[in-house]
Amino acid sequence: MPNSSITQQNHSSNDTLLDTSEKLCTVLIILYIINLAGGILGIIMMSHQLFQRRSQSVMTIIIINLLVLHTFMLLSIPFRLSYYILQEWKFGWFACRLASALIYLHMYLTFVFYMAIIIIRLFRLEFRKCYTTTWVGTVWLVGALIITPVLLSYYGTSKIYHPSKCFQFHREIQEPHMVIANYCLIGILVAVCAALTIIQLMVICRLAVKYWPDINSHVEFRAQAKSFFFILITLVCFMPHHVFRVYYIQNYHLDKDHKLLTYNEIFLALTTMCCLDMLCFIAGIAH
């Protein structure tokens, strides 16, 4: 009888874990479907507007680069959806590492372009088209020729993984160089975002006091308010993943049922929601 009771408890525990895993997987599927549909719609509509305007401003150049960056990200989402729906990876090990690395490249390059927009508007910087093209091209070259090869050379290569499984490089998270790299990226993103958020809020408050009560009629205030939109995207889409990443690194050894791994994937999926920013551009939130 005691053995029978223990067996029933184990079965009940396993059923609960499977049920939880299925629910979390459903959340992932819903998030990626929303991001894919909204991202494609936003890119099509924004591309149409840019084609009509034919503007060559600094902001237009950055927006075009965000469009390209989002497009690469969206191309990888169907592969992720296939994996989460079928519960099996069918596209080979290199494609798995590429799709996994791409989501991080997209997140950090998008963050760079967002910060560029905020800083340019915040400090009223003016660049010639050639200078803008140069630094944007440098960002792409660093990402394509340095960061991507490094990620593909080391990411997911130090351990042996099942060929039908993907996005499960959790066993490498405790490697000293991975811990250091993660903490550095988290520290940089949080510090930069916090500093620009404080400065941006101070500028908005100063302009609100200066132009009250007709604040919306002043171009300067509207520009700074719209610039704050990019900080909000960073706070909503990028910050939760990085905060949870600290908890995940510190508690990885306790994650016996891989529940934290799935939560980490959900927060990672949340970062791709920044692809919906183009719909906000169309709505006139971020010009």
From TrEMBL:
Keyword Transmembrane helix: yes
Main location: membrane
Highest taxon listed in the record's lineage: Eukaryota
Sample GO molecular function, one term: G protein-coupled receptor activity
Gene that this polypeptide is encoded by: LOC120323320
Subcellular location: Membrane
The keyword Transmembrane is annotated on this UniProt entry: yes
Membrane topology of this protein: Multi-pass membrane protein
Lineage: Eukaryota, Metazoa, Chordata, Craniata, Vertebrata
Sequence ranges assigned to domain G-protein coupled receptors family 1 profile in this UniProt record: 38-247
Residues spanning the membrane: 27-46, 58-81, 101-123, 135-155, 180-207, 228-247, 267-286
Protein name, entry field: Probable G-protein coupled receptor 141
Keywords: G-protein coupled receptor, Membrane, Receptor, Transducer, Transmembrane, Transmembrane helix
